[in-house]
Design goal:
The chain contains five helices and no strands. By secondary structure, the protein is mainly alpha-helical. This is ATPase.
């Protein structure tokens, strides 16, 4: 009987500030009992619970507690799976972030190399253009010299007699 009193005390505590009478009525509602006729409903609420009612109430509370424990275990298992999935997702996110940094670094390196190659090609193009201008200047000067040499040669009269050829000297 002491265990029943302990269970009843726990039940009363769970119900909070309700009076003992309200707790008994609630316990009577929870206990599986045959429906009382309308006239006896007030009598049933006022009479103390029988040992069968207490046993049924205890069984119901224990069953509810087992259901709650099972639900809590399932919840903890789900929480553990969720935490594992979250940890795996965080690891994958970190790996993706690392790969992204590597790709960005390679892209930055390629961009720098492209800028250097562009600058070098531009410098080579400018040097080639300068050489081309220099060659054009040299060619113009040579043309002028050739033309002036031709003009000078035209002004000189050829000798009347041929000058000794090199064949005769040899």
């Amino acid at each position: 009987m002491q265990m029943k009193d302990t269970v009843f005390d726990r039940f009363q505590t769970l119900l909070g500030e309700r009076s003992a009478e309200a707790a008994r009525r609630s316990a009577a509602k929870l206990a599986p009992a045959a429906p009382e006729p309308e006239g006896r409903a007030e009598e049933a609420a006022e009479r103390p619970l029988s040992s069968q009612d207490w046993d049924a109430l205890i069984d119901q509370v224990q069953s509810t507690a087992e259901h709650i424990r099972d639900a809590a275990q399932r919840l903890h298992a789900r929480e553990a799976r969720f935490e594992a999935l979250l940890a795996r997702a965080e690891e994958e996110m970190c790996a993706c972030a690392e790969r992204l940094r590597e790709v960005e670094d390679r892209a930055r390196g390629a961009e720098i190399r492209a800028e250097r190659a562009t600058a070098e090609a531009h410098a080579q193009a400018q040097a080639a253009e300068a050489r081309s201008r220099t060659l054009e200047t040299v060619l113009d000067r040579m043309r002028q010299l050739v033309l002036s040499g031709c003009d000078a040669a035209a002004e000189v009269e050829p000798p009347a007699r041929p000058v000794m050829s090199l064949r005769r000297v040899a």
